[in-house]
Specification:
Layout lengths: L3 E4 L4 E3 L2 E3 L4 E3 L3 E6 L1 H20 L5 H20 E8 L5 E6 H18 L18
Helix pairs in contact: 1-2
Length: 136
């Protein structure tokens, strides 16, 4: 049986698979990255809300102003605490896992740790890539 690296009851990462409630992904060709889309979306909504307050503030009642200001302030706070983990593997559908930042980071670290061990202690990247200084 493969060693469990991460198991929170919903998501499971072992030395062989990454399991979500609906799919299994082989660790050998699984890639994962953390997306910050909720934060950027919340900042955009907050910016539009503040612009609305600036332009139409004289036409709004005090309750409407307070509600709009609360959304503008609370949105980025919530967006800062939420992350999306994108898990992808060749031949499998992409999984987007939305959760609080600490849980997403733990899941990402577990996948990264298994990938590093799977590649024999070497980082899992293409060795043919040359940095900016090495290209002409």
């Amino acid at each position: 049986m493969a060693k469990r690296v991460y198991d929170d009851g919903t998501y499971l990462v072992t030395e062989a698979i990454v399991a979500t409630p609906r799919r299994f992904y082989p660790v050998a060709n699984t890639t994962a990255h953390i997306r910050r889309d909720p934060l950027w979306l919340a900042l955009g909504i907050a910016g539009l809300g503040l612009a609305t307050l600036g332009v139409y503030g004289d036409l709004l009642h005090q309750g409407e102003k307070a509600g709009l200001l609360a959304v503008c302030l609370a949105g980025p706070v919530v967006g800062q605490q939420v992350s999306i983990l994108s898990i992808d593997a060749v031949g499998h559908k992409r999984a987007l896992i939305v959760g609080l930042k600490p849980r997403i980071r733990c899941l990402y670290r577990a996948i990264r740790a298994v990938r590093v061990v799977d590649s024999g202690g070497q980082a899992a990247f293409n060795h043919d890539f040359q940095g900016e200084k090495g290209t002409k």
